[in-house]
Design brief:
Structural class: alpha/beta
Largest sheet: 8 strands, mixed
CATH topology of the largest domain: TIM Barrel
Number of strands: 19
Number of domains: 2
CATH class of the largest domain: Alpha Beta
Helix content: 25-40%
Radius of gyration: 22 Å
Number of helices: 15
CATH architecture of the largest domain: Alpha-Beta Barrel
Shape: globular
CATH superfamily of the largest domain: Metal-dependent hydrolases
Oligomer: single chain
């Protein structure tokens, strides 16, 4: 429950936060605040929270809380909104405790996750446990898979089933045009927003725009639609279901897109309110495999089931690094340059960019992938304030929650990060692994719905889970 100390400025007895315990009234005193809407940091400010909601944000006031956090020298920003999460409880068919994923998300400052594609019943069960406090978990917005349905009638029935079960939205992977049109028409009728992972399929970005999806995931379908003639120059031996082929030649896609055609496509996306969730980090191993395989947090926090899944094996999605070459990495480096330029231009023209990690694949750990995305968006040319907005308020907008989530503002949910240091100067402060390496942690509190969680404590729990799983293995 925390411990008591004498608060000198007020002369009252108050308490520090208890890990996982929601106080009736929490005050963060004297912090520098990044609101999340793109405006500059400001402080010192006090933030008062009651019943999981921010009630005041203002200049330092002599009003005490039941629990207080000393914000001097610290920054407060909204909790991160991961727009492409996967609540995995297995990898490659081998069981893995979903609490491993949930704790990593919270430890990395993620307070909201749009889960895209998990089994619906499992995701709903986990969400219910998180909402009652039975487990520590971010907020979950559940977008189950449409699946490869047979015909338009089946597509409509599947959407109806998903809505009836209590999902928040729908994920569509590349599909046939007639089934997509039917599914999207039903989804709009029932008020289900759609995240579209396009893939190299009959449907492309034009179909996503025409059907007014909420967001396009990753980037397949966008450069494809800007290629003169409409077909990438695949070799005659190319097999899309061979993932070594698929990802090798994905690294040569952006160079074939015509820039003027791409700009027209962007303008159409923007006019139809189609957001872009590029998930930059999930493809980073393709341009630098050695870096991806030697990330320092793997030593203590990489679950052995996930470690096995990452190893090159064409039976596992995203584990395609068989005979990966210098040439492949060179193409992917160029691919990233053009892709980053495109994302930056999309935003400059008024497009809505959000951030999601897609971790659990391609050497990316849950939570860590989200923070790496912040760094990659900075590499792409975005200002840190823009990046915070992309990772918070923009995600809330895509979810239709911009009046509740994604800002440090009175009336909004108390989803907050307390950082010892300036994350606008260094996003690495958000990585939690240093907390157990004798290094002063940057992210000292993740607050979700007014409940403070200690990232160092969460990482100790994750480490214990990993050690136990390694012994069993």
């Amino acid at each position: 429950m925390g411990f008591l100390f004498l608060l000198a400025c007020c002369g009252v007895l108050t308490a520090q936060p208890g890990h996982g315990v929601r106080p009736e009234r929490l005050v963060i005193r004297g912090a520098t605040v990044v609101e999340g809407n793109g405006t500059p940091a400001a402080g010192p400010l006090d933030i008062a929270v009651e019943n999981g909601v921010i009630v005041t944000v203002g200049r330092v006031a002599k009003q005490a809380g039941d629990v207080e956090i000393d914000g001097k020298g610290k920054y407060v920003l909204p909790g991160l909104i991961n727009m492409h999460g996967h609540l995995h409880n297995e990898r490659g068919g081998v069981p893995m405790d979903y609490n491993y994923v949930l704790k990593l998300w919270l430890a990395c400052g993620i307070t909201t996750v749009r889960d895209v594609g998990s089994p619906l019943t499992q995701a709903l069960t986990v969400r219910a446990k998180g909402e009652t406090g039975e487990i520590a978990a971010p907020r979950l917005f559940i977008y189950p898979m449409l699946g490869r349905v047979r015909d338009p009638g089946a597509a409509r029935r599947r959407v109806q089933e998903i809505k009836k079960a209590g999902a928040d939205g729908l994920k569509i992977v590349g599909t046939w045009r007639d089934t997509m049109d039917a599914a999207l028409a039903e989804a709009h009728l029932l008020g289900l927003p759609v995240a579209h992972h396009i893939g190299v399929e009959e449907t492309r970005a034009e179909d996503a725009i025409r059907n007014r999806v909420a967001s396009i995931e990753h980037w397949y379908g966008i450069p494809d639609a800007a290629i003169p003639g409409g077909v990438q120059t695949f070799p005659s031996t190319y097999n899309y279901l061979n993932e070594a082929d698929r990802f090798r030649y994905a690294g040569r896609l952006w160079r074939e897109a015509d820039w003027d055609r791409l700009m027209k496509l962007f303008d159409s996306m923007i006019a139809n309110n189609v957001a872009w969730d590029p998930t930059l980090e999930i493809y980073e191993a393709s341009r630098d495999l050695q870096r991806a395989q030697t990330q320092p947090w793997f030593r203590d926090y990489l679950h052995p089931v996930l470690e096995d899944f990452f190893r090159p094996n064409l039976e596992n999605h995203g584990s395609y690094f068989l005979n990966w070459s210098t040439t492949d990495e060179a193409f992917w480096k160029e691919n990233f340059q053009i892709w980053m330029r495109a994302v930056r231009e999309f935003a400059r023209r008024g497009g809505l960019v959000s951030i999601g990690e897609d971790a659990g694949y391609i050497y990316q750990m849950y939570g860590f992938g989200m923070i790496r995305n912040l760094e990659l968006h900075q590499e792409a040319g975005f200002h840190p304030l823009q990046i915070v907005q992309q990772a918070t308020l923009n995600g809330a907008r895509v979810l239709g929650q911009e009046g509740k989530l994604g800002r440090v503002r009175a009336g909004w949910a108390a989803d907050l990060l307390v950082v010892d240091g300036n994350p606008l100067e260094d996003f690495k402060l958000l990585y939690p692994a240093a907390a157990n390496a004798g290094v002063k942690p940057g992210l000292v509190w993740t607050i979700k719905g007014g409940i403070p969680y200690s990232p160092p404590q969460l990482m100790r729990e994750v480490k214990a889970m990993v050690e136990k799983a390694r012994l069993v293995k």
